[in-house]
Amino acid sequence: MASKHPDTVRMWFYGQAPREFQRLFAGSQESDWIAHVPESQRAAVEASLLQWRPIYPVQSLELKDGSVLYRGSPKTALEWIAAHGMPVSAPVAAAAERRSATRVQFECASRYRTSEHAGYGHTIDISSTGIAFTTQTSLAGNSEVTLHVTWPVRLEGGLPVELSAEGKLARAQPAMAAIHLDRISFSIAG
Amino acid sequence: MHVGDFVKITEGPFAGLDGRLKESGPRVLIALELSGRAVDVEMDREWVSEGVLESLTVSAG
Description:
The complex is a heterodimer.
Chain A: E1 9-13, H1 19-24, E2 33-37, H2 42-50, E3 58-62, E4 68-72, H3 75-84, E5 104-105, E6 109-113, E7 118-126, E8 130-134, E9 144-150, E10 161-173, E11 176-188
Chain B: E1 6-9, E2 18-23, E3 27-34, E4 37-44, E5 48-49, H1 51-60
Antiparallel strand pairs in B: 1-2, 1-5, 2-3, 3-4
């Protein structure tokens, strides 16, 4: 695909990527990212893209012109944790239970921020669609929450990883809350 | 957010990295340093924030 800057690396969420690139990664989720790396930049960029493989799948596909497409699936990291963790077994009345994804115990250091509050604590459980965490104060209903979680898996070389999640408050109690995840991303902590 | 500003990437595989804004618009062009080399990366405007300035302000406070 022609570009105004031929040596530029270009990135999109899957749904915004050019159709010809989407077709090469059929079955992707909207939250997946796609990166197109010109051959001239591959040496500088590839390690920074493939480094996420301990956390979530990253696939690559070399094109005829020598450029490379990469597809990362950050949300799969949550599914991996949910698949291998200890399921949360506390019974909940069916009428009150609106969560459909399997939740597993998941305790990692966390910090949160809303428009009114910020605080520290730890996560309680996680599913592919939400995270419950402890809070220092009661959070108001319908709050938009940004949650940062120290991820339990590190990159090669021991680099610590942080999950940044954004979502609307799904439930809140005096010392805990849960969000429904709208957006997630991983970054190197620090 | 203006051309020349330092910005923080918040989405995608380069989330957490800081770079300099080279072109603005719905798609932005960010100059990054990766593996010791300068690399221009284009992405949606929503993938970046003025977080560098924000974190400097918090640190100074």
